[in-house]
Write a structure and sequence with these properties.
251 residues; five-stranded parallel β-sheet; 41% helix; two-stranded antiparallel ribbon; alpha/beta; binds 6-chloroguanine
Length: 251
């Protein structure tokens, strides 16, 4: 997977993508990250990339031409028209299925906006996907681009070790992860759940499944609708809900 990031802050991207699992995947040749400085494509006296919006209003807009030329430099290099993701709070909210879909591409271009946005005309010409990372406003598209690149990277074959990939499977059923414990067996007078020390694998799997269901029902009930849940499990969830209602306000 080759990521190309069109940005006014290339150092932010380079710094953010050189550590941990992503850094290792780049070193191993599974990923590449090219930050393209849009300012390098501002072919005017002062390398200006922004201007006032027609019709008035607050702030400045990124101009169409430097963005377009930066994009063209990528298209020329790779030799085809790639998917171009524009990070904007007006986009579709990012989720795991989008990460899976993006991971199938050979190249992905991310366009990071700043100021009050980008001239609409260049967006119409180059953008294929409008993506938001949630309903709040950030100062620019760099952090969202890195969030999306991180999630996409871990779907690219070879990026995660076999051990790390295991964690993906736990979210595969659409449920939250079960709680986990490591040494010591007792900490601050809290014991590790005895079933986990029993060595009885079927019981451990059953306990973990129950914890995932319970946790999802408590913390993210919206996820239950699309998760893989049996009729028997739905009955269990209804039972818990009755009990939780009777308890009133306690975890
Ligand atoms: Cl993709 N960009 C900006 N600027 N703010 C955001 C966002 C993106 N997603 C949520 N807030």
């Amino acid at each position: 997977m080759n990521f190309h990031v069109l940005t006014l802050f290339p150092e932010m991207i380079r710094q953010g993508m050189n550590t941990s699992i992503i850094g290792r995947a780049i070193a191993g040749g599974y990923l590449s990250v090219q930050a393209v400085n849009i300012r390098d494509y501002a072919f005017n006296k002062h390398q200006k990339v922004d201007d006032y919006p027609y019709g008035g209003g607050a702030g400045m807009l990124m101009q169409a031409e430097p963005v377009y030329l930066a994009y063209e430099s990528v298209e020329k290099k790779i030799g085809y028209k790639p998917r171009v993701v524009y990070l904007t709070p007006q986009g579709k909210v990012f989720h795991q299925e989008m990460a899976r879909s993006f991971a199938k591409e050979q190249d992905l271009v991310f366009l990071c906006g700043h100021y009050e946005g980008i001239d609409e005309r260049v967006l119409e010409e180059i953008v294929t996907d409008y993506v938001s990372i949630g309903d709040y406003v950030l100062t620019g598209g760099e952090l969202p681009a890195m969030v999306v690149m991180d999630a996409v990277s871990r779907m690219v074959p070879g990026v995660l070790s076999n051990q790390e990939s295991g964690e993906t499977e736990s979210f595969a059923g659409g449920l939250l992860e079960y709680p986990q414990y490591s040494r010591p067996e007792e900490w601050h007078e809290k014991k590790v759940p005895p079933v986990l020390l029993s060595g009885h694998h079927a019981n451990i799997e059953a306990w973990r499944r129950e914890q995932s269901l319970m946790r999802t029902a408590r913390r993210r009930p919206d996820l239950l609708k699309t998760a893989d849940i049996t009729n028997k499990e739905w009955n269990q969830i209804r039972q818990w809900r009755k009990e939780w209602k009777a308890e009133t306000g306690k975890e």
